[in-house]
UniProtKB/TrEMBL annotation:
Record carries keyword Oxidoreductase: yes
Keywords: NADP, Oxidoreductase
Pfam families the record matches: NmrA
Molecular function via GO: oxidoreductase activity
Organism: Trametes pubescens (White-rot fungus)
All copies of domain NmrA-like, residue ranges: 10-239
Superkingdom: Eukaryota
Protein name in the entry: NmrA-like domain-containing protein
InterPro entries associated with the record: NAD(P)-bd_dom_sf (IPR036291), NmrA-like (IPR008030), NmrA/Isoflavone_reductase-like (IPR051609)
Keyword Nucleotide-binding: no
């Protein structure tokens, strides 16, 4: 899969049975199998169908006990944290503490969303995203000088959940409702491609000749499109007339989120971020993780609609 083909390392995927975790575990167990012969998937329920499915692919299934996580991580080189943000912040901090103490060489934080460096919700911050930022800052400070490379991988919205009415894509009615402008670009990445990016970055970070090329914060984009372009792709893939575009008031949405002081819906935050251009990952690290697209072909909106 990569030029770092002489690397053989052990990986742990915490939350590796989840919506995103299953895809990351699968990519590591299949496309990166040679370099990662041991993939430990941590779960509360080893008997679940997903855990069993991953075991059949060769995963070592390990019971997740956050209180004894440090010892369960002994000897692991790369740790990918794919736990959800519904876990209380102190529990997620405990996971970070255990990882740093384990002495792992590479650690992926549970980010996989918007790039905090691009957004600016001044005065109406989104609590989940603020929590991610706080945890990242704390663990980075804690790991300083420890030899653990900590990576935040920003992917924008998952391609698999993008095309629904809740984000203003009503494919059934063929109506598209962006806030602000229909030509504003935003990015989206498919979950299997995020899994591949984790594998590729882990190899780069494990290799002493390439580790310096890996930034602490990495931004990727499977594809970057606008509502107008999605409307046109739907028309060409489904053979239907170009749908209607209904532009909604971005300033009003921002004011409403401001008034709700962090209590607004996360979907509204996402839609505002799209409208503001904060999810446009046109300037990205794709070339680092998948040089010349030689390792894989990024899945596009067009591919998703055809599938
Ligand atoms: N960019 C996007 O569009 C997008 C969308 C969704 C999520 N995300 C991000 O992706 C990351 C992973 O989210 P996800 O939705 O994939 O997670 P998830 O599926 O909700 O959870 C992942 C796994 O964590 C374990 N888990 C769940 N609740 C737990 C608890 N209370 N205690 C211990 N373990 C628990 C479960 O494994 P077991 O049941 O096997 O123990 C679950 O399969 C998060 O950082 C999230 O913010 C991004």
């Amino acid at each position: 899969m990569s030029s770092s083909s002489n690397i053989r390392a052990t990986v742990a995927v915490i939350g590796g049975t989840g919506t995103l975790g299953e895809q990351i575990s699968t990519a590591l167990l299949t496309e990166f199998r040679e370099q990662f012969p041991t993939v430990r998937v941590f779960t509360r329920d080893p008997s679940s169908a997903t855990a069993q499915g991953l075991a059949k692919k060769g995963a070592e299934i390990v019971v997740l006990d956050i209180d004894s996580l440090e010892s369960a991580l002994a000897g692991v080189d790369v740790i990918a944290n794919i736990l959800p943000t519904v876990l209380p912040e102190d529990v997620r901090k405990k996971v970070n503490d255990a990882v740093v103490k384990s002495g792992a060489k590479v650690y992926f934080l549970s980010e996989f969303g918007l790039d905090h460096r691009l957004v600016n919700f001044s005065g109406y911050e989104q609590p989940e995203w603020e929590g991610k930022k706080r945890l990242a800052a704390a663990v980075r400070a804690q790991a300083k000088g420890s030899g653990t490379k900590i990576i935040s991988l920003y992917t924008s919205v998952f391609l698999e959940i993008l095309l629904g009415p809740y984000l203003g894509f009503d494919l059934e009615k063929n109506v598209y409702s962006p806030y602000g402008s229909a030509s504003q670009k935003f990015s989206t990445t498919a979950k299997p491609d995020i899994g591949r990016a984790v594998g590729s970055l882990a190899l780069l970070a494990l290799d002493s000749s390439t580790v310096a090329t890996v930034p602490d914060e990495v931004r990727i984009a499977g594809s970057t499109v606008s509502y107008e372009e999605v409307r046109d792709i739907v028309s060409s893939v489904k053979g239907v007339p170009k749908g209607e575009i209904e532009v909604l008031d971005l300033d009003k949405l921002e004011q409403s989120l401001r008034d709700q002081k962090g209590k607004g819906s996360i979907l509204d935050y996402l839609r505002l971020s799209v409208g503001k251009g904060w999810l446009d990952h046109s300037d990205n690290d794709n070339e680092l993780v998948n040089p010349g697209r030689k390792l894989w072909k990024w899945k596009t909106v067009d591919d998703q609609l055809r599938a």
